[in-house]
Amino acid sequence: MAGDDKPNRRLAAILVADVVGYSRMMGADEAGTLAALKHHRETVFDPAVVRHRGRVVKLIGDGTIVEFGSVVDAVNCALAVQRAIKAEVKSDNDGIVLRIGVNLGDVIIDGNDIYGDGVNVAARLEPLADPGGICVSTIVHESVGNRIEAVFSDGGEAAVKNISRPIRIWKWHPDGDSRSTQGCQQAAATASPETEGPSIAVLPFANISGDPEQEYFSDGITEDIITDLSKIAGLLVIARNSSFAYKGKNPDIRAVGRELGVRSVLEGSIRRVDKRVRITAQLINAANGANLWAERYDRDLTDIFAVQDEVTRHIVDALKVKLTPSEAAKFADVPTDSVEAHDLVLRGREFLFGSNKNRETFEQAVRCLTRALQLDPNYAQAHALLAWAHQFDYQNHWSGDPDNALLRSGQHADLAISKDPKDAFAHAIAALVAIWQRNLDRTASEANLALSLNPNLALAYSTLGAVHIYSGRPLEAIPIIEHVMRLDPAYYQQYLHFLGMAHLTAGHYETAVALLKQRVFLVPQTDFSRALLASALGHLGELDEARRIWGELKEINPRYSFAEHIGRQPFRSQEDVKRIADGLAKARLPD
Question: Whole-angstrom Cα distance, residue 316 to residue 307?
């Protein structure tokens, strides 16, 4: 496949740090300088990187390159380091003093190493920082917004080697910090946020029944456990899509922890024979691979909900998560008394959540879920999944009647809510239906209600982020979309589109370009993301590049009409539509 020849690329925040006057210090006292640098890395720099979920890519003498998945984490790490140094150092000639540059950009992965423009620009920014200070690009400054406890000053435009046009830089130094300089020691201690609380990924339980046809059952039990855990506000739970990316693999648990950013991982196996089921589960510390808890259950199928409840409670106890009374009450719920109806729901869900969704799997799912409702008309999950199925039909036009598909999706979502008002998934589907009906107020209400019931529901977060964009509040959308990317990293490319749109409508053109370029790279056939990218480039004056991107769009979809496409989007603010159109007009693009 042609796609296999592409380099492994991703968008990342890059921090580059360098010791001020290192050569002079080495010439004066080599042994003392090396000892001071080692002490600094062990007590200040490395702990700050760990606290902010960074990865040290390489050490180059007195310099360090660190990669972060979040630009907010990268800047907060830089602030924590410089504030801590300020608290320790009496003068610029006393101890280790750093310059730090931070950039957000495209990087190419080569084993454990990274390179590319994202790294190059960060390396060029570092010398522009004042000793003890930080220099960031406009992309970084736009991206962090007001989500950091620091104010950066405009450093004007700077020519950067190998970059065709000057870039605007922003600077910060602890001497001008908004925090009291007399309280530097306290500031250094509190500069970093507390380490993120308990977090978990639930890997797909292995089907050891000896019957591949039972795969739906093991997957279904895994998904139910994920859903149960997701209802706990004090626990970050990785979404099903991202956990199931490891299905059929035998990954190193420590690698899973690093890739998904979690402290613990649950894995296990399921063996179903006739009306008996055996479930084994073990909770593993993702940092060192140590077992935190393990158990085996041999039960009748009629006890399956009780087993899921026990597994969830044991995990909560092992992770020392305190449940609120309302959270504890959620685990007492039994969704249906019909074992057969539950089995049909698991089969239907497998058709919907499988990787090969098409009209055939849609029809199979509808048959299973309709039969489940014949057995138990009050089964809310069956209605919610039918709403999800018709939502897929609406988006893909499988039945040839998208308007009816959207109507039926909304009907089943409402029925699910009426049968079980605490079904978070049903509220999330109702929010999704409402956004296409241009009822943005109901979208926000249903998405917020879904999140009150399930604080880890990625679908509700992504819908809430989208409704903020469409309602003319893109700055509120940005942290929401970034959070859903944390919950569901496997859908990273999907969320890049909305994050890029949020920055574009907020007027953050450089950031929008970086995000949308990555989206186009990961989803080469996208047309609307290319239209947004061309608009952002037009606003930046990069007219030739905007026209090139538009040319690619037209090759992919010769009949593409921006006016028609933007008209289908439920934008409430025509100012946002005009901003996007103006970018295309500046590039003198047709349509």
Answer: 14
